[in-house]
């Protein structure tokens, strides 16, 4: 495909008729609904993309091909955008110039789709090379905005709104050759367009200004009064999409620039109360975000207090299911109906993380669509945490009235009231406490309500009171209530409705975490219900049973590792494994990651695999060596290695967590592929993207340490490679996850403990930063093992720590108490050894440089 222009510059390029016809034909075929072989067409388009001027053809078709449908022109434009994104750097400058020159007139095209696609391509160029590479663009945009031609104005605003959304900082930067920043020219024009009679221009100009609230360029700060006046004028705009953006502006301002709104706060709150009941759900949803934003910004509660009697009823009203809520349809799902592939939405399961920082568990939400109902409940939750019991006098009469509403038609009100009780379960716990026994007694029968959604929300609300339910078991009444809740949730786990199954399983997992050893006497009945659920559930909810089994193993620990319980638990799990074909998507977690092949990148599979890996980790922790029967009957080791190498970050994170857990309880099964596991884990620490993949690196680092203390000298081949990766983490901890730094220090110590002869020759390079990290770690067995490594290294190479002695003393002083007598004695020997080595006042000089509290701590080591 050659151009007929003979290389005479961008302006001279002309397409050949034959090439033009062929590419248009392919684009038409690709879009035809009956087209059979899309992959063949795609391959041909990819073949053409090898030619240097293929993108010129696409630009020509998009911009000026006569007699071609808008759909084909748009398809050419979107393909061009993708090519610019992927191959801009290899595109000849003359071709770039040609494409840009064709795009600019498209901003004024008669067809809105062409204008919009042009805006998308222009924004892509700006994302890649900024404004500097396209000086004509700014002039063209200003000219279009000032033209008074609606098409040109809309086209320019479309491009600008996309630039403001994707790369707002580009317009707020100094550009060589320009006397002022581009945003200084555009912002006054945006504010002017707030008054346009054209809805699209009002919407695009407002969304563009909103993008600068966070950046707050000088020109916006100086025009703030005009911006706020504009917002108050647009507050009553007839177009819901404009009112939604007004609400979004106030939400952003309260989050990051609350001082600006302070003089107008009463008016803003009054407006938000009004639009929280807007006829458009999208506007009401955006308005509802304001209450959460206000609470999270920790602004003075008194500004909101007087509005609570009006706000709380609105929130409660909006917490009822809307008539068109998709959950109302989904709630009718029969539990025996097999799941369709499209039902298998990913569960937002948070992967296991080994470290000192707990990852906060999100409440399991049943459908992952954010809507007015959920936003209202979240706002009520936050308000209850800010105002506590003072919201109860307003709220509880409404809740009680809704709960006592009878008749089938009032079920949505009853359901919303149960949701409200759960939402305030944390913030208002003091005021609710005297009545909790009654509230729980009221909720237990609702687990058997005729309406599915009342049964499912009752599960969730009861789970919010788990701590109280478990605390009450010390007296007979509380013990009986705990039994009723436990049995009620187990009963609902076997509900015929999928939604209720899911809610009950999630609520049970929450109760498990609180109850812990309280569950031990009831393990028999719990396991029987879990196994019944295991046999009853369809694919989607099976994952939650896996989670519940894993949480149970975590909660009761070694209690589970008894023949009676293993006889209930193991046969169904092993039977499930033996039933499987290699292509089965529902692979049992013990081999759940079995489905790691070309489809592993799909979101459902990824979530499923992560869930499976985490169940196995829970079982490994709970069953201990008892998990060996499962591991030995599967090809888990090979599959786990594949997971450790997977492209998906979440899968690797959970895989390395499981690797560490298996290293603890059955390392013998990992030995045949030990070298590969260690090499793969070491690679996670040697990456330029360490900050982005910190959780993976953290778990890989922890797993290496766990392996080291189990396989001893067999770790030697990779010991120095790992040390060389850990040292930079300790030397440059800025911005890194605290757990990664701690685990790096512990793993380095464990390697030094098992291979002191390999690690100690290099100790002077890392002693200082390593000791600083060790001194930050709390007392525990892992810290003990790290200090055993320190002592082993010092014995092997005493001079290696001389220059870092002060830091070593501080690390030793960080112990509250070394419980191991053996380690305590080793530390004493180390300190006495240096005291004898340092003559002529050198030891005293070292001691004098320590802070008094450090010297006091060292007294227990008799130095």
UniProtKB/TrEMBL annotation:
* GO cellular-component term (any): nuclear lumen
Q: Which InterPro entries match?
A: ARM-like, ARM-type_fold, Importin-beta_N, Importin_beta
Q: Where is the Importin N-terminal domain?
A: 41-109
Task: Check the record and name the SUPFAM superfamilies matching this protein.
Answer: ARM repeat
Ranges for the region named Disordered are: 327-358
Residue ranges under compositional bias (Acidic residues)?
327-336
Top-level taxon: Eukaryota
Sequence ranges of Basic and acidic residues compositional bias: 337-346
The principal location of this protein is cytoplasm
Answer whether the UniProt record assigns the keyword Plastid to this protein: no
Q: Name one GO molecular function term.
A: small GTPase binding
UniProt KW keywords: Cytoplasm, Nucleus, Protein transport, Repeat, Transport
Alphabetical GO biological process terms? protein import into nucleus
| Subcellular location(s) of the protein | Cytoplasm; Nucleus
Q: Which family does it belong to?
A: Belongs to the importin beta family. Importin beta-2 subfamily.
Question: What's the protein name?
Answer: Transportin-1
| Organism, as annotated | Sesamum alatum
């Amino acid at each position: 495909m050659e151009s007929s222009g003979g290389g005479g510059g961008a302006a001279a390029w002309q397409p050949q008729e034959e090439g033009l016809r062929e590419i248009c034909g392919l684009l038409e075929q690709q879009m035809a609904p009956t087209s059979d072989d899309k992959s063949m067409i795609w391959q041909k388009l990819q073949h053409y993309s090898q030619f240097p001027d293929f993108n010129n053809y696409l630009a020509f078709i998009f911009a000026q091909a006569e007699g071609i449908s808008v759909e084909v022109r748009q398809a050419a434009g979107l393909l061009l955008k993708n090519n610019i994104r992927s191959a801009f750097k290899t595109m000849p400058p003359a071709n770039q110039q040609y494409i840009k020159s064709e795009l600019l007139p498209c901003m004024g095209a008669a067809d809105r789709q062409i204008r919009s696609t042009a805006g998308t391509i222009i924004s892509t160029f700006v994302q890649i090379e900024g404004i500097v590479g396209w000086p004509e663009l700014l002039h063209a945009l200003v000219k279009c905005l000032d033209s008074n031609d609606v098409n040109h104005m809309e086209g320019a605003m479309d491009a600008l709104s996309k630039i403001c959304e994707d790369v707002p900082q580009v317009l707020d930067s100094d550009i060589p050759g320009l006397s002022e920043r581009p945003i200084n020219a555009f912002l006054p024009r945006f504010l002017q367009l707030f008054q346009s009679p054209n809805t699209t221009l009002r919407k695009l100009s407002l969304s563009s200004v909103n993008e600068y609230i966070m950046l707050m360029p000088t020109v916006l700060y100086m025009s703030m009064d005009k911006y706020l006046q504009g917002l108050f004028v647009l507050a009553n705009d007839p177009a819901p999409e404009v009112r939604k953006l007004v609400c979004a502006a106030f939400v952003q301002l309260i989050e990051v620039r609350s001082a600006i709104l302070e003089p107008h706060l009463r008016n803003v709150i009054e407006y938000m109360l009004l639009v929280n009941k807007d006829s458009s759900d999208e506007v009401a949803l955006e308005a509802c975000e304001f209450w959460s934003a206000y609470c999270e910004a920790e602004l003075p509660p008194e500004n909101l207090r007087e509005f609570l009697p009006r706000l709380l009823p609105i929130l409660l009203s909006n917490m009822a299911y809307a008539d068109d809520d998709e959950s109302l349809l989904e709630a009718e799902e029969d539990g025996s109906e097999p799941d369709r592939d499209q039902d298998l939405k990913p569960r937002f399961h948070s992967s296991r993380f080994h470290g000192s920082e707990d990852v906060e568990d999100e409440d399991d939400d049943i459908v992952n669509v954010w809507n007015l109902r959920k936003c209202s409940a979240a706002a009520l939750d936050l308000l209850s945490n800010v105002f506590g019991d003072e919201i109860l006098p307003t709220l509880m009469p409404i809740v009680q009235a809704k709960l006592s509403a009878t008749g089938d038609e009032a079920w949505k009100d009853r359901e919303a009231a149960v949701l409200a009780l759960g939402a305030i379960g944390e913030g208002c716990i003091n005021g609710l406490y005297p009545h909790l026994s009654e509230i729980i007694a009221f909720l237990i029968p609702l687990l058997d309500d005729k309406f599915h959604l009342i049964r499912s929300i009752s599960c969730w609300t009861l789970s919010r009171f788990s701590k109280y339910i478990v605390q009450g078991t010390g007296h007979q009444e509380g013990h009986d209530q705990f039994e009723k809740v436990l049995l009620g949730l187990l009963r609902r786990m076997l509900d015929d409705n999928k939604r209720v199954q899911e809610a009950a399983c999630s609520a049970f997992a929450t109760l498990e975490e609180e109850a812990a050893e309280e569950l031990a006497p009831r393990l028999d009945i719990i396991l029987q219900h879990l196994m019944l659920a295991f046999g009853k559930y369809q694919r989607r909810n099976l994952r939650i049973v896996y989670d519940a089994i894993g949480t149970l193993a975590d909660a009761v620990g070694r209690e589970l590792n008894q023949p009676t319980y293993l006889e209930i638990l193991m046969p169904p799990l092993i039977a499930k494994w033996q039933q499987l074909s290699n292509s089965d998507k529902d692979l049992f977690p013990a081999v759940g990651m079995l489905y790691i092949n070309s489809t592993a990148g799909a979101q459902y599979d990824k979530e499923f695999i992560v869930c499976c890996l985490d169940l196995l980790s829970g079982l490994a922790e709970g069953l201990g060596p008892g998990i060996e029967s499962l591991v030995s009957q599967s090809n888990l080791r090979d599959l786990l290695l594949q997971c450790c190498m997977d492209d998906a970050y979440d899968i690797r994170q959970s895989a390395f967590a499981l690797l560490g857990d298996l290293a603890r309880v059955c390392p013998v099964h990992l030995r045949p592929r030990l070298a590969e596991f260690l090499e793969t884990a070491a690679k996670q620490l040697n990456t330029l993207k360490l900050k982005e993949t910190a959780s993976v690196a953290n778990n890989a680092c922890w797993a290496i340490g766990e392996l080291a203390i189990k396989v001893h000298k067999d770790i030697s081949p990779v010991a120095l490679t790992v040390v060389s990766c850990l040292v930079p983490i300790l030397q440059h901890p800025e911005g890194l996850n605290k757990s990664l730094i701690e685990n790096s220090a512990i793993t380095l110590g464990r390697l030094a403990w098992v291979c002191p002869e390999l690690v100690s020759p290099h100790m002077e390079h890392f002693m200082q930063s390593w000791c600083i990290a060790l001194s930050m770690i709390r007392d525990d067995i892992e810290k003990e093992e790290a200090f055993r490594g320190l002592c082993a290294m010092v014995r092997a190479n005493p001079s290696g720590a001389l220059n870092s002695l002060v830091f070593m003393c501080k690390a030793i002083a960080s112990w509250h108490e070394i419980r191991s007598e053996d380690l305590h004695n080793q530390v004493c020997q180390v300190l006495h050894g240096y005291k004898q080595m340092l003559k002529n006042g050198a030891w005293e000089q070292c001691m004098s440089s320590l802070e008094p509290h450090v010297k006091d701590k060292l007294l227990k080591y008799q130095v």
